[in-house]
Amino acid sequence: MPTKPLTHSAEASLRDSSLRSRLALPVVAMLAVVSCSDSDHPAPGASGDLSRDYFSFANAEQFVTEHLRLDLTVDFDARELRGDATLEMRRVDPDAAEIVLDTRDLTVEQVAFFTDGEMVAANFRLGERHDVMGTPLTIEVPAALRSAADVVLTVTYRTAPGATALQWLPPELTAGGSHPFLFSQSQAIHARSWIPLQDTPAVRITYDATIRTPAELLAVMSADNDPEATRDGDYEFRMPQPIPSYLLAIAVGNIYFAPIGEQTGVYSEPEMLEAAAFEFADTQQMLETAEAMFGPYQWGRYDLLILPPSFPYGGMENPRLSFLTPSLLAGDRSLVAVVAHELAHSWSGNLVTNATWRDGWLNEGWTSYLEMRLMEVIYSKERVAEENVLGYRELLLDFENVEPAMQALAPVLETGDPDYFQGSIHYHKGNLFLQYLENAVGREAFDEFIGAYFSDFAFGTITSEAFLDYLDEKLLSVHDTVSRANAEQWLYAPGLPGDALIPTSRTLEQAADMARAWSAGEIAIDDVPVADWSPQGVVHFINSLDPDLAPGRLMELDAALGLSGTRNAEIGRTWFIQVARRQLYPAYGQLEQHLQRYGRTRLVRPVYKAMADNGDDLQLAQQFFAKARYAYHPLTVASIEAVFRRAAETRITAAGTVRLYVAAFNQQNIDLMLNRVSDDIRWMSVDTDKLVTEARGKRELGAVMASYFENLPSARAEIREMHAVGGYVSVVEEAKWTAGDEEKSQCALAVYEIEAGLITNVWYHGAEACTDAGS
Ligand code: BES
Ligand code: ZN
Questions:
Q1: Which residue lies with its CA nearest to atom 14 of ligand 1?
Q2: What is the distance between the alpha carbons of residues 556 and 559, in angstroms, rounded to a whole number?
């Protein structure tokens, strides 16, 4: 049986600067461990049905939605959408008497069916809430409609302020600072938190919508946006092509439009509009390139929407209107691969859709492959080689962290959260699979296959098994270079098959050589031709530096290349991961700025993780997070909290270097209190003895705190009060410090979240001065 294909030596070889020589041989040899005999990897004999969507409650095998009509009011004060969702459904099962819809945290006021020209209220019930899946809404079909082929029902409802798909941003978290902003992120299963519907990619619907907003704001949707729309707070949309629910999208804010090409343009707040139009000026040309390669673009216009920094992803392929992070605005068009990616989804994903989330590679793997094909035309083969190598590195790291069963492209997935299934395995292993196929049959034959695939399955959904059958019929059985068993190994086995094409890049090898030579002191930094490199080259250079470089040399590098101050978010990400791993404290100020500037999960989460894992800085990472989280998206917050939880589970050693700080501010608003502290921060350590003595006098959780703080260095903070409630311990600390030659003192309230005896989260807030009561 195959075992986990990569061991710690893979990590070690990645850290080694000689990526090429180390990866090209031994890792391939290790990967070959998984290339078992041909018959080893048929479709898994799952306990359930491979084509079933385990992440929806909807009874789509009995009724199928064909059209959705929305009439929603956007209320920024209440942070809610309210109104009607009308579903036009077709009966599939003649005996079905109930309709089950997906919801999450919706307040349902009424359900009514349209029958004989009038609306008739129906019985409904909300079931038990499931953490990942939400709450099923079961609706009784009235007796009069028991044999009707079609039913039309309207759900009158409102969303919760914490709806998982929606982020309601106060003005201060937008570029302009004077208008609020709302945006949605429905993928994977969040549409149900703003619309009651059959939230499964297996069901495709057309939709129209009336959206009512404050008069000065503009609404846009994944639909026929009108660049000329009158800004009056009343907007109509139509999406005439059938789409899966995860592509339903809305944004409302002080949004304006700038054209790029005939069919293309960009929406954003006016403060970013010019920069965005410049950055994405090649979008029209990209679209035309894509059409020439993949077949006709079926969606009419293709526009981009630049969101505020908290947008949790690089991009989201909402049809006709890709949503993008503002972190792509590097000023030099160097990050447009994300646009190529989201545009490519107009074929892989939006036109031909994964039937369930276990088939996600059919969306993301195909899209990564098409992205590379676009990048090859827009940039060069060399640039694609670079992206492939970096993707491959990320894949190897994922193999380290993902259990073998989940390393398959199409694993058995019946539980868990589809937002987090497999790291980037869908993307990079999927891409390598398609590159492998292309290489085996030749580009011409593969291009023909691409065209046929998108036209044969247009506006349809597809499972991994249906894809395999189609591939077999159209390609494998025609060429004898790849067997069905080869393909099955990609789909069902962990790791990579032994004959996978391992990406290499001449330019990245050169960057790695330079990093090695500079680390060894053989060349000066001025001899490194950084100016000639792509951002990928710089990324690879940073990742290839000697792990034992002295801090002074790293600071020298930072000064010479301006790494801490880079405008390129990918370079910043790479650099600050290294800063955290290597504990380069002089750069922590700018590391913290990076964490505050960006909200895209990919840019911030790994930096927190590197801090949490470096042996010393878990608590500092939590403190940086406490300051920055106010500006993050709930999905980003949740994924960073998971990092902290895992780090705390594996290691709370109280090894003597944990630092605390106290932040002063007077915010009355509880939201702000828990999420943001002022810039006025003073570092301090903790008087361990006092803390421990105090803590020992308290209840059980106090003892937990005590054990945590044992061995800490001594300093000047006193515990004034300590309370334990549930999984939380609150501590009032009096901090004393000097500012200039002034002695200061202040009380701060720290709330520690404790799980299984470990601190998993810390929030601070404080008052200006300590009162006698201690707070
Ligand atoms: N559709 C994804 C984003 C997504 C995936 C959201 C799964 C929710 C669940 C989007 O197309 C994507 O892949 N974005 C990448 C872009 C990158 C690979 C170029 C991102 O945000 O990093
Ligand atoms: Zn994608």
A1: 315
A2: 5
Q: In what order do the strands lie in the sheet with 218-221?
A: 166-169, 181-184, 250-253, 218-221
- Residue 163 near residue 182 (C-beta atoms within 8 A): no
Relative to the alpha carbon of 605, which ligand is closest?
1
576 CA distance to ligand 2 centroid (A)?
25
Cβ(180)–Cβ(173) under 8 Å?
no
Q: What is the per-residue pLDDT for 732? A: 59
Contact (Cβ atoms closer than 8 angstroms) between residue 337 and residue 387: yes
Ligand 1 pocket mutation pick from 364, 375, 390 by most atoms within 8 angstroms of CB: 364
pLDDT for the residue 57: 98
pLDDT at 652 over 50: no
Convert the pLDDT of each residue in 36-74 to its tens digit: 334 467 666 545 688 999 999 999 999 999 999 999 999
What is the tens place of the pLDDT at every residue in 685-715?
334 344 433 433 333 333 333 444 443 333 3
Mean of all residue pLDDT scores within the chain: 84
Atom of ligand 1 lying closest to residue 314 CA: 21
Is 427 designated active site? yes
Contacts of 646 (CB under 8 A, 6+ apart): none
Q: Which of 316, 413, 420 to mutate to test the pocket of ligand 1 (most atoms within 8 A of CB)?
A: 316
Q: What was the pLDDT predicted at 434? A: 98
Measuring from each residue's beta carbon to the nearest atom of ligand 1, which residues come in under 6 Å?
A: 187-188, 313-317, 337-338, 341-342, 345, 364, 419, 427, 602
Residue 258 sits at φ, ψ, to 5 deg, of -130, 130
Q: How many whole angstroms from its chain centre is CA 26?
A: 32
* Structure token pair of residue 209: 């919508």
Q: What are phi and psi of 697, to 5 degrees?
A: -75, -10
Which atom of ligand 1 is least distant from the CA of 600? 21
Q: Which two tokens stand for residue 69?
A: 């009509």
Other Cβ atoms within 10 Å of 30 Cβ, number = 18
Cα–Cα distances in Å, from 585 out to 374, 577, 617? Answer: 40, 12, 10
Mean pLDDT of 289-306: 98
Identified catalytic residue from 235, 267, 369, 427 = 427
Taking the centre of ligand 1 as the mean of its atom positions, its distance from the CA of residue 82, in whole angstroms, is 28
pLDDT above 70 (res 764): no
Joined tokens for residue 696: 């020992």
746: β partners? 735
Nearest to 249 by CA among 282, 213, 220, 224: 220
Which has the closest alpha carbon to 415: 99, 48, 2?
A: 48
Query: Could you tell me how far CA 146 lies from the centroid of its own chain?
Result: 43
List CB contacts of 729: < 8 A, sequence separation 6 or more: 701, 702, 704, 705, 722, 723, 751, 752, 754
pTM here?
Answer: 0.82
